């Protein structure tokens, strides 16, 4: 039987062939618990009566949504997490290092072929290195922490094949937004999205992360890219037979195949207030902008900041725009500091914040009021996510975000 | 019989319970903010035994288990939708709240109508008509029957 990449990963882990629809119990290589869910997850773990975790080295606690803390009880999450880590010998605790989904691959945890679960829906990001990863609730996570395994239905796979070279000013964000628009917000529910073709091969791992990160916005169980030499280099592992075998079989069966030519992609935005409400930027130009947010686990990496800096070098943002830049991790922050990117953005008038999730989920910083417009590089424009329910959120690439900051209105 | 609270498609978890309430100490303290941005009276008006009925892709968005949690805490007996986002679906079963896929009910009822759910036979009765609904996979039905994942895990040991 021929297999898609996700079927192969599951088959390798359980030691026999699997097919879509099979319900299997899989061993879990990585558990990611973020600060929002830590306290609840720990509570459920105790309620289940476990006395130890299955493997302290496979559990990663990351504080990112509440840093810096903004509400009186936010720090309760850190105390709960710290006490749990100490009690069960968990050493992988990140307190100010960055956004969980950036750190899980950047800090060297998730590798090609691994199976990872996290208490956040954007856990799908780790497919960027050819791993299976997905989000779950805190009760299920508590179960994994105790048992080291979880049941899962092997998903059908949708193949997304993109060939050719993207036009100047078009990024992987424009690609994934267009794909979500075509699939709709529920078009890939319960399924895997396998991204392949020369356009994806030409992308950096950082650009691929933007694509896999947003797979969940089409409802997908996971998004995945075929690991290659770039992946091996990013993960700091040899490019060996084991990685080379992590590719879909020729003739594998897919529930759907979407085929795109790279040159057909144009800059687009997801318009209020649905992720699949996609329009070309050319249709939106002239829309006045109150805030621009450049950051998040979707687009807060060095190449994203550099792309914005290339637009803004030697220039100033429009006076009325609140322009906020949040690097995805401390490592990205340092690199952008050292290569002058942050200086360019700062001179252009950006507020540069500590790495974290607060802004994207409307919990801390950049919160807006009725009828205000924000162009943001994150992954969700849900009603009320970044302020009141009348805030208009446009999701865009770093290039389009930088242009909106520069001109104070959406600009092609 | 329970009252129907009807919502549209792609209802996301931010709309069910917004992120600023997620760290309230208990689900009971969060539940008064359920559906705040869509219907600020929902938490006040809903009674134990009532139903939430929605179009496609109910519960899309984040992994927050508090979303099915607040609905259950308010006494919502089941959510019936044309389809569900997968994390919300799993979370609901894991906390012991029925989530029912029914393709035909949504267009046939309006907000405020009454309905009855026969979970065992997979049948919904509303306005004098019957609608069949999809049954859960055996693994999930087993977890739901035992009252959720905690009870289910405790039983395995």
Please give a quick description of this structure:
The complex is a heterodimer of chains A (412) and B (157). Chain A is α/β, with parallel strands linked by helices. Chain A has helices at residues 5-14, 35-47, 75-88, 100-106, 138-147, 172-183, 198-202, 205-213, 229-235, 241-244, 281-284, 296-299, 302-312, 330-338, 341-347, 398-407; strands at 23-27, 30-34, 59-62, 93-94, 115-118, 132-135, 149-153, 157-163, 192-196, 222-225, 256-261, 268-270, 278-280, 291-295, 322-326, 351-352, 373-376, 392-395.
Features:
heterodimer, A: 412 residues, alpha/beta, Aconitase, domain 3, Aconitase, Domain 2, 3 domains, five-stranded parallel β-sheet, 16 helices, B: 157 residues, Aconitase, domain 4, seven-stranded mixed β-sheet, 8 helices, 7 strands, 31% helix, globular
Shape of chain A: globular
Just give the CATH class of the largest domain in chain A: Alpha Beta
CATH topology of chain B: Aconitase, domain 4
In whole angstroms, the N-to-C terminal distance of chain B is 37 Å
CATH homologous superfamily placement of chain B: Aconitase, domain 4
The appropriate CATH architecture of chain B is Alpha-Beta Barrel
Describe the strand arrangement of the main beta sheet of chain A, using strand numbers. 4-3-2-5-6
Write down how many β-strands of chain B occur, each being a DSSP E stretch of 2 or more residues: 7
CATH class of chain B: Alpha Beta
Structural class of chain B: alpha/beta
Mean pLDDT of chain B: 92
């Amino acid at each position: 039987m021929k297999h898609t990449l996700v079927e192969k990963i599951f088959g390798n882990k359980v030691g026999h062939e699997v097919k879509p629809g099979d319900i299997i119990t899989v061993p879990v290589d990585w558990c990611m618990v973020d600060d929002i869910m830590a306290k609840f997850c720990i509570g459920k773990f105790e309620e289940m009566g476990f006395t130890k975790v299955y493997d302290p080295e496979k559990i990663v606690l990351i504080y990112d949504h509440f840093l810096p803390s903004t509400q009186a009880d936010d720090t309760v999450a850190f105390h709960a997490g710290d006490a749990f880590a100490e009690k069960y010998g968990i050493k992988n605790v990140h307190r100010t290092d960055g956004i969980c989904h950036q750190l899980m691959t950047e800090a060297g945890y998730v590798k090609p072929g691994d199976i990872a679960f996290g208490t956040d829906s954007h856990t799908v990001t780790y497919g960027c290195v050819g791993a299976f990863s997905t989000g779950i609730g805190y009760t299920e996570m508590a179960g994994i922490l105790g048992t080291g395994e979880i049941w899962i239905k092997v998903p059908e796979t949708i193949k997304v094949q993109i060939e050719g070279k993207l036009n100047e000013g078009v990024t992987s964000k424009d690609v994934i937004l267009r794909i979500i628009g075509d699939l709709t917000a529920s078009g890939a529910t319960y399924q895997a999205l396998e991204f392949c073709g020369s356009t994806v091969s030409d992308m950096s791992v950082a650009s691929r992360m933007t694509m896999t990160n947003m797979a969940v916005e089409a409802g997908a169980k996971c998004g995945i890219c075929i690991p290659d030499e770039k992946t091996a280099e990013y993960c700091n592992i040899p490019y060996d037979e084991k990685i080379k075998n992590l590719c879909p079989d020729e003739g594998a069966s897919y529930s759907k195949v979407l085929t795109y030519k790279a040159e057909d992609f144009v800059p687009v935005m997801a318009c209020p207030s649905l992720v699949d409400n996609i329009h070309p930027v050319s249709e939106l130009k002239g829309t006045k902008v109150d805030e621009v947010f450049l950051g998040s686990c979707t687009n807060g990496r060095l190449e994203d900041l550099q792309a914005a800096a290339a637009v803004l070098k030697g220039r100033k943002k429009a006076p009325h725009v609140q322009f906020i830049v949040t690097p995805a991790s401390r490592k990205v922050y340092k690199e952008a500091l050292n290569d002058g990117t942050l200086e360019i953005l700062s001179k252009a008038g950006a507020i540069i914040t500590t790495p974290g999730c607060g802004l994207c989920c409307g919990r801390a910083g950049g919160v807006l009021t009725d009828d205000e417009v924000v162009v943001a590089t994150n992954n969700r424009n849900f009603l009320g996510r970044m302020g009141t329910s009348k805030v208009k959120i446009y999701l865009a690439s770093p290039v389009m975000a930088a242009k909106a900051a520069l001109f104070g209105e959406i600009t092609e | 019989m329970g009252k129907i609270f009807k919502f549209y498609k792609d209802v996301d978890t931010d709309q069910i319970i917004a992120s600023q309430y997620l760290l309230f100490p208990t689900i009971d303290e969060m539940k008064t903010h359920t559906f705040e941005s869509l219907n600020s009276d929902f938490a006040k008006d809903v009674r134990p035994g009532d139903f939430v009925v929605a179009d496609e892709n109910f519960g899309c968005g984040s992994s927050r288990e508090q979303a099915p949690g607040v609905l259950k805490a308010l006494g919502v007996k089941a959510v019936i939708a044309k389809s569900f986002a997968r994390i919300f679906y799993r979370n609901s079963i894991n906390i012991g709240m029925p989530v029912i896929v029914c393709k035909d009910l949504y267009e046939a009822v309006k907000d405020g109508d009454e309905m009855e759910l026969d979970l065992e036979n997979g049948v919904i009765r509303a306005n004098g008509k019957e609608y069949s609904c999809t049954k859960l996979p055996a693994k999930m039905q087993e977890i739901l029957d035992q009252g959720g994942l905690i009870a289910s895990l405790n039983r395995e040991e």
